[in-house]
Design goal:
Elements lengths: L1 H13 L1 H23 L1 H25 L10 H25 L5 H27 L2
Helix pairs in contact: 2-3, 2-5, 3-4, 3-5
Length: about 130
């Protein structure tokens, strides 16, 4: 039983999606801490942007780790993960704009765009690491 759990944890940490989500979580922490120095509303807006980005990423990570049925290329699983991620993102955007008052929209969108750029940074660093092999 412990071997199975450690194998799952090993698969989780090796996933490029895990690295992306971890980088986004860390960037959310940094952005909210930086914003907290200036304004409490800005810090809350940065945290809300992080939640809007990280939670759908975690969903995609969990879907990607499900075992693929033999003979299936896994395309339906990838599609399910991306459609679910998009739906979660839209729902979280709606929830933030309806329930979070006051919200610094500039900080919210700036943080969200920065977190989306984390994807490119993580993949660029990973590709450089692979090229050095």
């Amino acid at each position: 039983m412990k071997e199975k759990a450690s194998n799952r944890l090993g698969n989780l940490t090796k996933s490029p999606i895990f690295r992306i989500v971890a980088a986004q979580f860390f960037a959310t922490f940094l952005a909210s801490a930086l914003c907290l120095v200036f304004d409490r509303v800005a810090a809350i807006s940065a945290v809300m942007a992080g939640i809007t980005c990280v939670v759908p990423g975690c969903y995609t990570l969990m879907v990607s780790l499900r075992p693929v049925i033999k003979g299936d290329p896994g395309l339906s699983q990838a599609l399910r993960g991306e459609v679910g991620k998009f739906a979660l993102t839209v729902a979280l955007f709606a929830l933030v704009f309806v329930f979070v008052k006051p919200l610094n929209v500039l900080v919210f969108f700036s943080t969200f765009v920065g977190l989306q750029l984390c994807v490119a940074v993580v993949l660029l660093l990973q590709s450089r690491k692979l090229l050095k092999r």
